[in-house]
Amino acid sequence: MDNINLKELDKKNIWHPFTPLKGGAEPVMITSAEGVYLHTDDGRKILDAVSSWWVNLHGHSNPYIAKAVSAQAGILEHVIFAGFTHEPAIQLSKNLLSILPANQSRIFFSDNGSTAVEVGLKMALQYWHNQGIEKKKIIAIDGAYHGDTFGSMSVGERGIFTNPFKSHLFETIFIPFPDTEHEEKTLQQFCELIEEGDVAAFIYEPLVQGAGGMRMYSPALLNELLTEAQAQDVICIADEVLTGFGRTGRYFASDYCSVKPDIMAVSKGITGGTMPLGVTTCSKKILNAYESDDFLKTFFHGHSYTANPIACAAANASFELLVSDDCQQSIQRIGNQHRTFASEMLDHPAVATVRSLGTFLALELKTDTRTSYENEIRKKIYPFFMERNVLLRPLGNIIYILPPYVITDEQLHKVYTVIREFLDSLQQ
Ligand SMILES: *Cc1c(COP(=O)(O)O)cnc(C)c1O
Fold this sequence. Notes:
The protein is an alpha/beta fold. It is built from 13 helices and 16 strands.
């Protein structure tokens, strides 16, 4: 099929995510990708500065991962995971436990981030149910994003995306986002809530709220929240779907805290961005409530593609790349470059604040309070960068970079340069 026909068929047949069916821009056709570059049908090379929705770690079409995927597809493509097992999953469990916080002791597989969160919530609620203890309340943080399924929507910020489903979402208690000015207030509200003794779980994105605007908060404050939660026997669920696998400069954002979560959800970077895979992990404490001769205490949850061997093989290959000295040095290098650029941009008249942590860099642009202006900015940013062959997807007035770890300094500086150009253009 030629490209014109393909695009017509796309328009006729396909419903794209987060995309209006009317009035949206035509999707860009990608024919191949390599390293940080996406190749379009009309011969452009677009620098993927957001790792294709935050999943890609080692560059597109990474040959090492591709080889592992290809080999596994010819050996064992899939098998039911209830009552059966296979080496790629077992190897992956070993790999993950070697870098996860030491208290994590069991790996539960699924196939995306929302579901990994969903599984974490169910694990926590059934933990209490299995013990016959009445604890049902769940606490989350204002501005949270935990996914698009009903459970994960319920524990996330309510807004235009969740409005049509409002009446079907379960109740969640939200504490204020703990930015520097609100740390005391957040901690105090949290302590009051959990003192009542009926809180089942606390779910949080450790250190960085992604979709909520790349907002960051301090490890010391998170450590205090976790300390208080565990003193009141509240199950702590770290949603590391975004922050896992080196994104924050350490393997997991939870590594910045001395108190560890009871349950962790990971996905996005787990296969280096090659195959869909989700994982929920938990500590011995959680397992204790399930280790029983009573059949009814089983965790009755599973998906057709649970622990897909090809996805596990991709994750094992991605793991080997991640723990290599090369990759670890790249993560530190990107962090250093980000910090330098952040300090340069801090005084820019168009910039309200700059945040960086590990491979995350976010610039919050000044807007006046009129939302129409905010919309204007949002609409201007994306095409400005696309015209310059850089893929950046702003979150409102937030421009952020979250690159694959293989990005070179030169490529990184190209991204910085177009951001600077954009900010300067706002001054004219
Ligand atoms: C992306 C994301 C999710 C949802 O993951 P999907 O794979 O898109 O379902 C959940 N939590 C966080 C923090 C995320 O960034």
